[in-house]
Amino acid sequence: MTWIFLSACSTAITSKRSCVSLFAGLLTEKNQIDCVQIDTPEPGPGEVRVRVSLTGICGSDVPRVLQGKVHNFPLVLGHEFSGVVDKVGPDVPASMVGQRVSGIPLIPCKEEKCPACSKGDYSLCRSYSFVGSRVFGSMAEYVCVPVSNVFPIDGSVSDLEGAFFEPATVALHGINLAKPEKGKSAIVLGCGTIGILLALALPYYGISNVVVAVHHAGKDAAVRSVGLTKVVATDIPAWKGKACDLAGVDAFDYVFDAAGTPATILDAFEVAGNHATLCFVGTPKNDVVFTSQQWELVNRKELTVTGSWMSYSAPWPGSEWEDARRLFSLGTLKITQEMIDCLYGLTEIKQAFERFAQGNVKGKILIDSRR
């Protein structure tokens, strides 16, 4: 699949760079990220080296740069990536070379004594490492990771789609935790990348009556571009009633909060029906304050509430990753031009994060390590 619209971005790099050395976007202190030359990594035992294609900038990367919220400097960010295995370390089959892959960023301890890993709850491991957070990530020409941290993809999945596997699996993990029943209704609050992918995936799990809620009507272009038609803006009067009318229900059986804002969290309890299941996928950045009446809705409606963290299950890395590959291959999950803000090359990585500082981002920003 060819994504011509990406190369049309106004910030595309026109110059060519030699790949004789490793170039990487290195974060050295708060708000100081630049494309520099560093030592090319060599894969160790049980590792592979990936020649990176594309990396999506995650919302968690933004405070790492703009606020310096990292475990240590220097750091190469990037955990939503696709690429090709170009070298393998000892104990890794040479046949892996040339394999197209999507990156799996979590590196759990997988120790038998770990109460989470021993149960296959890898997302909940407390002794984990993480690509692009605790070890150098994929905003570089090459990245070395354990062989268990690459997920094979084939020609039915594009490099662009491969870079969206990680956020897609976050969405699918939330759906799995909610345990949806076929024929029920659902509303997705917050339709950034994860919210859109979650709404697209729900029919695969038996819930086709899906409404998506965006902050205001001007934010619905990406949602509608993927074919989602039951869309409501939360800045209009009586939007909750309109959302129910779109679904033909009095309230929703399943509520997925993919935004994690105080407003969407509180809204989730309002739009939920009796015995509904609420799944909170978005990560709050601010405190959430409930009135006693708002919290009492949990009791009065006898709600089931679950959180969702990352995207893994047993056997490693989990059904979420198998399903992501299947759903992208089928075209159930899709990435459209309207979901992409822009594509930057490695030499423009500083400008990419400056765009976040300006507060005018309208979709996913990606870093292209191939140019």
Helix run count: 11
Q: How many DSSP E strands?
A: 18
% residues in beta strands: 25-35%
- Biggest sheet architecture: 7 strands, mixed
Helix/strand order, N-terminal first: HEEEHEEEEEEEHHEHEHEHEHEHEHEHE
Task: Supply Rg.
Answer: 21 Å
Summed over residues and divided by their number, the pLDDT gives a mean of: 93
Low-pLDDT residue intervals, each spanning 5 or more residues: 1-20
Q: Explain this structure to me?
A:
This protein is an alpha/beta fold. Helices cover 25% and strands 26% of the residues. The chain has eleven helices and 18 strands. The strands form four sheets. Strands 3, 5, 6, 9, 10, 17 and 18 form a seven-stranded mixed beta sheet that branches. Helix 4 (165-178) packs across helix 5 and helix 4 crosses helix 10 (319-330). The longest helix has 14 residues, at 165-178. The chain is globular and about 60 Å long. The model is unreliable at 1-20 (pLDDT under 50).
Brief rundown of the structure:
It contains 11 helices and 18 strands.
